Amino acid sequence: MTTDERSEPGHDSLSDATQSKKVSTKWRGYLDATLGFRNHWNPVGYGHEIAEGAFVAVTALDEPILLTRVDGEVRAIQDRCAHRGARFSAQPLCFRKGTVSCWYHGWTYDLADGRLSDVLTSPGSPVIGRVRVPTYPVVEAQGLVFVYVGDGDPPALAHDVPPGFLDEDTHCLGIRRTVRSNWRIGVENGFDTTHIFMHRNSALIKGNNIALPLGFVPTDRGAVQVHGEGWPKGVVDNLSENYVPVFEASLQGVPVWTSELRGDEKRVAGQISVWLPGVLKVDPFPDPSLIQYEFYVPISATEHEYFQVLQRKVTSEQDIETFEKEFDETWRDLGLHSFNDDDVWAREELEEFYRDGDGWSNERLFPPDMCIVEWRRLASAHGRGTQPPFSARR
Amino acid sequence: MTTDERSEPGHDSLSDATQSKKVSTKWRGYLDATLGFRNHWNPVGYGHEIAEGAFVAVTALDEPILLTRVDGEVRAIQDRCAHRGARFSAQPLCFRKGTVSCWYHGWTYDLADGRLSDVLTSPGSPVIGRVRVPTYPVVEAQGLVFVYVGDGDPPALAHDVPPGFLDEDTHCLGIRRTVRSNWRIGVENGFDTTHIFMHRNSALIKGNNIALPLGFVPTDRGAVQVHGEGWPKGVVDNLSENYVPVFEASLQGVPVWTSELRGDEKRVAGQISVWLPGVLKVDPFPDPSLIQYEFYVPISATEHEYFQVLQRKVTSEQDIETFEKEFDETWRDLGLHSFNDDDVWAREELEEFYRDGDGWSNERLFPPDMCIVEWRRLASAHGRGTQPPFSARR
Amino acid sequence: MTTDERSEPGHDSLSDATQSKKVSTKWRGYLDATLGFRNHWNPVGYGHEIAEGAFVAVTALDEPILLTRVDGEVRAIQDRCAHRGARFSAQPLCFRKGTVSCWYHGWTYDLADGRLSDVLTSPGSPVIGRVRVPTYPVVEAQGLVFVYVGDGDPPALAHDVPPGFLDEDTHCLGIRRTVRSNWRIGVENGFDTTHIFMHRNSALIKGNNIALPLGFVPTDRGAVQVHGEGWPKGVVDNLSENYVPVFEASLQGVPVWTSELRGDEKRVAGQISVWLPGVLKVDPFPDPSLIQYEFYVPISATEHEYFQVLQRKVTSEQDIETFEKEFDETWRDLGLHSFNDDDVWAREELEEFYRDGDGWSNERLFPPDMCIVEWRRLASAHGRGTQPPFSARR
Fold first, then answer.
1. Which long-range contacts link B47-53 to residues 24+ away (Cβ below 8 Å)?
2. Considering only CB atoms, which chain A residues are within 8 Å of B246?
3. Average pLDDT over residues B146-173
4. For chain B, what percent of residues have pLDDT higher than 70?
5. B393 near C CB under 8 A
6. Which residues are CB-contacts of B329 (< 8 A; sequence separation ≥ 6)?
7. Which CATH number does C12-36+156-389 carry?
8. Is the Cβ–Cβ distance between C184 and C297 less than 8 Å?
9. Strand ranges of the sheet holding B107-110, from the earlier edge strand across to the other edge
10. Could you give the angle at which helices B183-191 and B370-382 cross, rounded to 10 degrees?
11. Is A244's Cβ below 8 Å from some Cβ in C?
């Protein structure tokens, strides 16, 4: 598709970025993770969505999962009866607390361990106690419900969320929605330094009086820090330190766009980081008083669930109430929607190229994409396992 | 997907039912018959749908078929012009009784033998008499139009319908509709003893004061009789004789559901049977005065035409009129719709698991499914031929 | 699907036409050209659709193309940013005349040569000048915008349009629309002599008092002339000279249709021809004063853009105005729509058979199809290159 001339020698990361066809083997594990990384925690919903005794069906990493709440605790079981594969959620039945019964033949499972405890249509059946449907470890934190899709014992949740996310004396509020792109397009859109060009007319800029450049010129490779030891593992990009922000755009030396800056703008997005299994942290954003987290949870090869969470330090119930009021009045619409709706649109636009056009081989990266390159390498090296298609796992 | 522990030794059929992965080779022919069994009779419509001279297009076993009526007799011809593959039915033309002309170039075929008899656009063309489009043997019986999709001479219709269906002094009334599941999901749903659990709240139960248990506990393997000699061939399950009906459901010994029985309920469904190529008979149902037949005719790999037919003994025109009135006022809505709509829903729910999830390998049967196991074996052993995809047959 | 008996010996073309399975290797190149022939000119729109500075996205031969007009001249560039594959057209940006900028990261290309001239988000980036997006040669003629999808220098436009199309002292008016069939079904429908059967009730016949037979009986092989030397290359069928027109249709000798002819009908369609890469000329049509051209431009394997153009000799501005008025009042609706809508319908009907049913192997041609046979051979021998799928070309 493109004419590619020799890139400059010397700058290692820059050359990588401009020769993506050759370096793609360096992030093979990431390319294989079409359905995400197995053996990690991922959010699947907000706690308030799952009332006591209610059933909620979600799909994460291609696995159908049924959520419910029993005595205050969220339980997660694979949403497939072992008998004939019916989804419990098609008509969820609970005849006794802590169980789910299949609507088709009354096979009844204990939600604690997934074991078949009774068959309503055939008491005393020899299959009772001999069949099990997989269940998933669940943790609730910061208003979110996290599920562990993987094998063996799960790690601590703190290993799979950005530093600071679980901090005490903070409060989180957010939304979620389904985006029609692979989850990796989501992560890369969020972490991408120069995509802010597309936000140049966002209502958020004037609405919250923030300074948002059109782009960045990297000045130093040290801008991108790889945290590959311990957990969580991630890549940190200190935008405010190692880049020259671009507030005026020129073509052939002639200015064609100028940001109107008065000098009193709020500073945001000083540091952007991304963490395994695929979580963004923008600190601060969309206001100096807030941190924005984004989880891009794989649903299928072509869809991800987009969790947008705002975090603020709070020291009292009053602080929480104030935050909730602000969230409802300002941040949800001006930030999570108005601003990020553009990102959702961009991801859905890119999906076709990366899916049908073999974009991973045909893209042509450039130096500001070095943060993305580092993320792909980190994920390839440290993702705990490639999630196989659900149908292949039985 | 499931943890499968050792099943009990001894009980042969029970072990089969609980170890489906191992026994699937025993019904290989059935698994191959995604598009149904070739060389059998199947209904494709009701006689009253095909008026003299009218054209009706249907698809059976993946084959496009054009039906019409000539001098009272139904004719069936493949719905494809031999010339460029146009479907006659896109704009059916008849310039002379007993023929169909293609709308594109006027190729005209004799419906009796499918031979190209004239070309309206090119009189005397050398192709006349040298090209033939396949035709299908047709028989009308009990208000239904049966077509033979197969090779060679067809057997008697009586070989491919349940015993009693063609009995004199009976009258049949029914409906048909398209269900979005493979035909085998349809057969197995109908023949399945314990799926009645899902009907426990059906309006039919109180509406017609019938006794319908939640399920059954098999007491004896003799309950299922295989009729593998002569024709028709089928599997008969005598529910009223060899099962303990379940009218009360318990979880861990605690009752959670009780059927309200007063003792004066009508008895139905004493015997359920299924016959090649895939026809259900429920005797009696949904009333002691009626027998219900169900034909699950393959359309494509993912759809079947569902024929629901009620039969009653009649000895006079008056009996027929009474039956027709009852059918219109009661049985169509309360039985064929209200009750069986649940079955349609169940089949469409199961389709994804059996299609994409390799359900035939991943299902986990249990003892009451032994009737299904016997049906699969019978069909594998005696189905007269696997129907190939239409495109592969030319 | 059909019974095929031996065709007559001797008549070579006739045997071909009745033994398509055997001769298909004679038009292998044509069968391979699912996405059309590369290295030819094809129309992609009308000049009036592309205003100065406006952006219009089209797809031709599976390639996404962005059109715009700069200082009066139409420019065409591949509609994919080299960076991450975003379509410029999703949100076209022009910050400086003669360039297009990508909405995602501000990569900016010179439309003259496709070279990356600036990156708005990262001034001075080393990728500037080192990346190029393909551009396409463009010519405007007779109100149409032609684009060359191919390699190397394009031939003269006159090589890829029917003789007479570029004649001075003529004026062209037309419409375009997307048809859901492969482009070859389009060409063959237009060039097909006996398909006029389907137009027998067209409003155009009485509306313009023209004589249109039901079909034709070929009398002489000389009717079809192959122009395989020089360019353009095409096949010419002199309908008025070497066929016996059929105005009365019979079945088994009994008349079933008679065209009402009064003797004063206008004569049209005396000569029909088709030219590489796939352009029809009907001379005259739909009126003795007009010639109709049809371009069937491949979009994807299953869609083509259908350009219908009427040409008339003109000697003054007044003639053009008269033509425009007639076109608006009569020819657009009565000819290009009412009459040709039937052809669009026929092509979409045939698509399934040729796509899924392997129609190219299963069709059964007959003598009047010899014009189609000659076209397939010519195209196979002289098409300048098979267009590969877009995704495979990068």
1. B47/B74, B47/B140, B47/B143, B47/B144, B47/B145, B48/B143, B49/B145, B50/B74, B50/B145, B53/B94, B53/B97
2. 120-123
3. 98
4. 92
5. yes
6. none
7. 3.90.380.10
8. no
9. B99-101, B107-110, B116-119
10. 140
11. no
Average pLDDT estimate for B311-339: 98
- pLDDT score at C277: 98
Does C279 have pLDDT greater than 50? yes
CATH of the domain spanning C40-143: 2.20.25.10
Residues of B in contact with C349 (CB under 8 A): 86-87, 90
For B:109-148, CB contacts with C below 8 A are 117-127, 130-134
Condensed to tens digits (0 to 9), the pLDDT of residues B30-79 reads: 999 999 999 999 999 999 999 999 999 999 999 999 999 999 999 999 99
**Domain covering A12-36+158-393, topology:** Naphthalene 1,2-dioxygenase Alpha Subunit; Chain A, domain 1 (3.90.380)
Q: Which residues contact B68 (CB under 8 A, 6 or more apart)?
A: B50, B53, B54, B55, B56, B74, B75, B92, B94, B100, B111
Q: Do C1 and B134 touch (CB under 8 A)?
A: yes
Is B12-36+158-393's fold the same as B48-143's?
A: no
User: For the segment B48-62, what is each residue's pLDDT rounded down to a tens digit?
Assistant: 999 999 999 999 999
Dihedral angle computed from the Cα positions of residues B355, B360, B362 and B367, in that order, rounded to the nearest 10 degrees: 140
C187 in contact with B, Cβ within 8 Å? no
Mean pLDDT of chain B: 92
DSSP per residue over B120-156, as a string? TTSTT-TTTTTEE--EE-EEEETTEEEEEESSSS---
Contacts of A112 in chain B (CB under 8 A): none
Q: Which pLDDT does position C78 carry in this prediction?
A: 98
The single-letter code of the amino acid at B325 is K
Strands A107-110 and B248-251: unpaired
Q: Are C55 and C67 in contact (CB under 8 A)?
A: yes
Give the pLDDT confidence score for residue C356 in this predicted structure: 82
Contact B213, B66 (CB under 8 A): no
Give the DSSP H/E element, type plus range, for residue A100.
strand A99-101
Q: Which amino acid is at C180?
A: R
3-class secondary structure, C185? helix
| pLDDT tens-digit readout, B192-205 | 999 999 999 999 99
Q: Let me know how many helices (H) and strands (E) chain C has, helices first.
A: 10, 22
Beta-bridge partners for C297:
C305
Q: Confirm if A268 and A244 have CB atoms less than 8 A apart.
A: no
Interface test with A, best of C63, C84, C94, C103 (most A CBs within 10 A): C84
Q: Does domain B48-143 have CATH number 2.20.25.10?
A: yes
Helical segments of B201-316, H only: 203-207, 239-242
Chain C residues in contact with B390 (beta carbon < 8 A): 357
Amino acid code (one letter) for B55: F
Q: The tokens of C371 are what?
A: 């014009």
Helices B340-355 and B183-191 cross at an angle (nearest 10°) of 130
**B126: nearest CB among C18, C250, C359:** C18
pLDDT tens sequence across C173-185: 999 999 999 999 9
DSSP-assigned beta bridge partners for residue A388: none
The domain defined by A51-143 carries CATH number 2.20.25.10 = yes
For chain B, which residues make up each domain, given as ranges? Answer: 12-36+158-393, 48-143
Residue A11 has pLDDT above 70, yes or no: no
- The structure tokens 């009334």 sit at B173
Tokens of B33: 């018959």
Q: How many CA atoms lie within 13 A of A390 on its CB side?
A: 22
Q: Which residues of C touch A251 (CB under 8 A)?
A: 95-96, 99, 108, 117-118, 120
* Cα dist from A315 to A167, A309, B343, whole Å: 12, 19, 56
Residue bearing tokens 């450039």: A366
